[in-house]
Every structure is written in C-alpha cells, then in structure tokens.
Amino acid sequence: MDKEDIVEVLESIAVLLELKGENPFKIRAYASGARALETSGAAVADLIESGELAKTKGIGEALAKKIETLHREGSLPFYDDLKASVEPGLLEILEIPGLGAKKVKVLHRELGIDSIDALKSACEAGKVSALKGFGKKTEEKILSGIENRAAYAARHLLWELQDRVHSILAGLRKLEVVGQAEVAGSFRRLAETVGDLDFIVASETPEPVMEWFVQQPEVVEVTAHGTTKSSVRFAGGLQADLRVVPAAQFAFALHHFTGSKDHNVAMRQRALKAGLSLSEWGFEAKDDEAADLPEIRSEEALFAQLDLPFIPPELREGRGELEVERMPELVSVQDLRGVFHNHTTASDGRGTIAQMAAAAAAKGWEYLGLADHSKASYQANGLDEARVREQIKAVRAYNASEEAKLHVFAGIECDILADGQLDLADDVLAELDYVVASVHSGFTKDRAETTARIIRAIEHPATTMLGHPTGRLLLKREGYAVDLEAVIEAAIKNEVIIEINANPRRLDLDWRFWRRAAERGLLASINPDAHRGAHFDFVDAGIHVARKGWLTKDAVLNTRSLEEVTTWLAERKDRRQNLKEA
Ligand code: DGT
Ligand code: CA
Ligand code: CA
Ligand code: ZN
Fold first, then answer.
1. Residue 286 has pLDDT above 90, yes or no
2. Best residue for ligand 1 mutational test, from 264, 317, 474 (most atoms within 8 Å of Cβ)
C-alpha cells in the first residue's frame, strides 16, 4: 500500500473506534498518526528502511508496526476485525457527507437506526431533526446525501476508466476477425463521468469477438451474451456493452452509440430535411432513391452526406453543434506551454520547488507557477506572510541557479475569507507574480452570500485567477450554491481568469459554461492543482473540459509562451494597480 492508502486506513480506524465508543486517547493516536504520516516528506518505504518511522512525532512503536504491515501486506488483521465488528449498515451511513462517528452513534442509540433505509424513513418522519444537535437543516442535508449516494454509485470518473478502455480496445483489435474497434458513448464524448462503457466493433464473424469480451478475466458477471450485443459487469460495478456490426454499418453504429441522444435527435431532423431517415443501421431514402446513396464507411462521410463538417465527439451534446459553418479549432494538450496552480512541500504538496520544476520541465513546458495554500488553510499547512516572502525568495533563487530547468512563477492559492477578503496582506500579495483566489470553507452558506463573497474577491486588484469556482468533488460532494453567471460576469469585468481545475474529481469550472463565457471574453487557465509531479498529467482531463467547452487556443492563458505570459501578467498587474490608485 502506498502512503495515501495507509493514511486512509488509519483515519478509518479512528472513526470506527469512535463509533464503538473506545477510549479517546486510543482514537486520537490513530488520527494524529494518520496526520503525522501524511505530512512527513519521505516515502513510507524509506521511513521503514531507515527506522525513522517509529521515531516520527505522533507515531509510536505499535503504530509503526501496523503501518509496516499495511505497507508490506496491503491489509491489517486488526483493521479487518474492527470493520467486521461494526454493523455494515452503520458503515454505509458513515459514507453520507456530514455524518461522522459521533452523529451516527447518536442516531443508533436514540432511534435504533442501523441502515440507510431506516435513516431515510426517520428523516422523512422528522424524527432526526428532533434529536439534540441535529436540526432541520441537517435532516435535509442527510436526505439529499442519501439521494446523491444512489446517483453517484451508478457513475464513474472517466479519468479512472482510461486504462481499462485502452486495454479492452487493444484486446479487441488483436482479434483476427475484427476490422475496426472503437469506444463510443459518454467516454468518447469526453464526459467527466461515465455511466457505462460502449464498444463498437466491425466484424462479419461476431461469435469469437463476443466470446473474448465475456471471458475477460476481470468480468464478474455476464448480463447479456448474444451475436449482436453482449454486456458485462466488472468489479466495482462498472458495466460495458459491446455491439458487433458488419463493416458496412460501422460508421452508423459508431455515430449512433456515441450520442448524445440530443445530438442524435438533431441529426435525424437534419436528415429528414434532406429526405433521408437516419438510424444506427444507415440512411434510408424516403422515396425509394436508395440506389443514389453512396456507400458510407466513415463518420466523416456520414456528416458530409448531410453537408456537415466532421463534428468532434466531444461537441456532440446537442448544443448547437450542427448550426456552425466551421468547426472551431479546439485547444489540445500539445498547445500547453506551462501550468499555474500547483503546490509544493511548503504547504500540502509532496514535491519541493526543484522536484516540481523538474517534473514540469519533463512535460516539455517552459514555465511552472507555484501556488501553495495560504494560512487560513491551516489543515494544509498554509503559508503566512513571512513564509510567502521566504518562498518568493526561494523561487527567485531557483530561477537564478544553474539547476533551473524552466522558469518558475511565484504565486499563491490565497483563501477567500468568509467576508470575501483575501487571506494575506495586500503588500505581500503585490510582491507575487500572480494570485489564485479560492474558497475552501463555508460550503453551506446561502447562494447570495457566497456569490457576493466570491465577487468581492474577484474585485480585489491582486486577484489574477479564481480557483475551482464551485468547490465540487465529482461523485463525492456537490459544490456550494453560487450564481456562476454573476461570477463569470464579474470575472470578465475585472480581467480575472477562471481556472479549469483539471483534477479529475473537480473539473471546475464545468464545461457547460465555457462556450458562452469565452464568447463574452472570459479567459481560462488549465490548472492541474498538482500536489506531486505525477499530477501534471491531470492537464489531459482539463483539456477534455476545454474542448467540450468549445475553447480554442486563444481562450486559454497557459497556451501562451513564457514571454507572452510574463508580459500579460505584468501589464495586467499595472492596470489593476492604477485602477486602485485612481
Ligand atoms: P452514460 O453511459 O450514462 O454515461 O451516457 P451515454 O451517452 O454513454 O449513454 P448510453 O450508454 O445509454 O447510450 C450510448 C449512446 O447511445 C447514447 O449517447 C445515444 C445512443 N442511445 C442510447 N439509447 C438511445 C435512445 O433511446 N435514443 C437515442 N436517440 N439514442 C440513444
Ligand atoms: Ca454509456
Ligand atoms: Ca450503454
Ligand atoms: Zn484549492
């Protein structure tokens, strides 16, 4: 097990012990052990090897042994027994946001609640809000948490399915009887989350293809096994459909099952106007002119038949993509020249300045922007004014040193405080190359208050970019309520960039807003929010959002060269500063 997984197990042990009403000291030992391990700079293997682990503050001999076991074996009997000793219904209840061990214990003791269903009925009957320490708001939150839970369980992050999709495609393409194989559905449209996978294969002999598909070693259940369609389920609940069609039908099937439904509806209407009916099987001429129809062997040809340019799958959402004369030249990952929102060991990142810079240079980038947390994010070891100044110095020293692999910009991810003020003094903010302003607290505040709070931060002359504007965590937590149209308006007015936070769980600002926002003049920055070098790969997910949002290279700040970006940041700073003084 790696460090993150071990930390999660220790945290989970603390919660389970609390649920069982164990001794508070014992509980705290696991909680603080988890924190100590998480914040130690070294890798677990090194800590064990050097004997440093047991000497780390917050980790004693006994805990060190358990960490070693988890690292080596990937499991821990003590943890397994503990989990087995708690009613499974309570474990499920614990997964609902806002319900910690304390509250679950009260629900169990006072109302005998031991399952999600029981909890749902109790909330609906108003019994939960009658409990001390709960209230109406909590009750409503629990109910929506239960609803979300069901919806979330049915979907998966696209990011986490990529390896599986590519290996299935590779497997299909290796089969001798297979002509073409493609993935369709929401995965091909680069959606942020995916319900099930859809594969389309061209072959005149479907049996061996289906046979291979249902016999993949990772399949846990075969829900359909036919000659035109098969469906399987993998561990973790992911389902995949495979359709095998004759080569002559492949382009139509691929187009149909790529969707979206709304896009398909628009395409069929367009076909009808041209006297054709379009389906997953092909075109049919309405008045028997079928002989005049050319053979269609590609999606390009299919679109061309309806006088359309090739519409990239990611734009097929039924949002006016048939109405444009020319397709936009969508931004691609090769266009990126650097990235801005990233963390180092100074706050909660795992790499030093030099390590992060080396990893960014290895991506072929010209610059790296560092934006560690500010002091209000104390749980992430945020920087106060003095530490910001130290870091600025360290960045400048790195740039001047022989080891410099690219240019590093000194920035900050500055917390937006409850009243919309920034978390750091103006003079320090002014010394930085740029400022990402983000909300990390107060998720339950009302929409008008949150909107005003964010707009106030946008109006601050030091703010260069707005970080993750809704705070959502896909399939985990809804974002805070906020009027994004008003936020976008304010950002345009104040020349503030809004980020596309490329962490695959965030993808925030959502693609649905970008086309219109960019047309109105909003500039994007694709920000990996990297906490270690490997996270720079998240930019691929950010590019998905940008493309689905119709963005071209010009609409994305970090496609610009080091020189252009430097000038842009400096000129913008001057303009904003003058505005303030005027
Ligand atoms: P997902 O799986 O929920 O993430 O989303 P999709 O888009 O992959 O949906 P899915 O797997 O149900 O179907 C794949 C595509 O097949 C869908 O985007 C459009 C097409 N399709 C499926 N059912 C229908 C339908 O009832 N009507 C139309 N027009 N198209 C359909
Ligand atoms: Ca699907
Ligand atoms: Ca499907
Ligand atoms: Zn953040």
1. no
2. 264
Residue 290 has pLDDT above 60, yes or no: no
Tell me, in angstroms, the distance from the centre of ligand 3 to residue 217's CA: 21
**Nearest atom in ligand 1 to 189's CA:** 7
| 249 touches 203 (CB < 8 A) | no
C-alpha 137: how far from chain center:
28
Domain boundary among 264, 291, 323: 323
**Is 423 part of a structural domain of the chain?**
yes
CATH number, residue 202: 3.30.460.10
Within-domain flag for 54: no
| CB-based pocket (< 6 A), ligand 1 | 185-186, 191, 194-196, 198, 256-257, 259-261, 264-265
Q: 189 and 240: one domain?
A: yes
Same domain, 191 and 292: no
Rg (CA), the chain: 27
CATH of the domain at 302: 3.30.210.10
291 pLDDT tier (thresholds 50, 70, 90): low
Asked whether residue 581 carries a pLDDT value surpassing 80, the answer given is no
395 and 542 share one domain: yes
> Following CA atoms 492, 493, 494, 497 in sequence, which dihedral angle do they give, to the nearest 10 degrees?
0
**415: which 2 tokens?**
């917390």
In this structure, the residue with its CA closest to atom 28 of ligand 1 is 261
Does 138 reside within a domain?
no
Structure tokens at 296: 């269609």
Residue 35 in this model has a pLDDT that exceeds 70: yes
Residue 541 is assigned to a structural domain of this protein:
yes
In ligand 1, the atom with minimum distance to the C-alpha of 194 is 4
> Is the pLDDT score of 184 beyond 90?
yes
Same domain, residue pair 270 and 415: no
Single-letter residue type at 505: R
Q: Which of 184, 218, 245 is the last residue of a domain?
A: 245
**Whether 205 and 352 share a structural domain:** no
* Angle, alpha carbons 225-231-233 (nearest 5°): 125
Domains in the chain, number: 3
Mean pLDDT of the chain: 94
Q: Which two tokens stand for residue 186?
A: 């929401």
Whether residues 492 and 380 share a domain: the answer is yes
Domain with 388 in it: 335-581
Q: Strands across the sheet with 497-501, in order?
A: 338-339, 367-373, 407-415, 434-438, 465-466, 497-501, 524-527
Same domain for 205 and 256: no
Model pLDDT for residues 296-343, shown as the tens digit of each residue: 999 999 999 999 999 999 999 999 999 998 999 999 999 999 999 999
Which pLDDT score, from 0 to 100, does residue 207 have? 97
Q: What is the CATH number of the domain that holds 375?
A: 3.20.20.140
What's the pLDDT band for 288 if we cut at 50, 70, 90? low
3-state secondary structure of 581: helix
- Residue 542 and residue 406 in one domain: yes
Percent above pLDDT 90 for the chain = 85
Structure confidence at residue 87 (pLDDT): 87
Give the pTM.
Answer: 0.83
CA–centroid distance, 257 to ligand 1, in Å, is 6
Give the number of whichever ligand sits closest to the CA of residue 256. Answer: 1
Structure tokens at 41: 């700079």
pLDDT given at position 2: 84
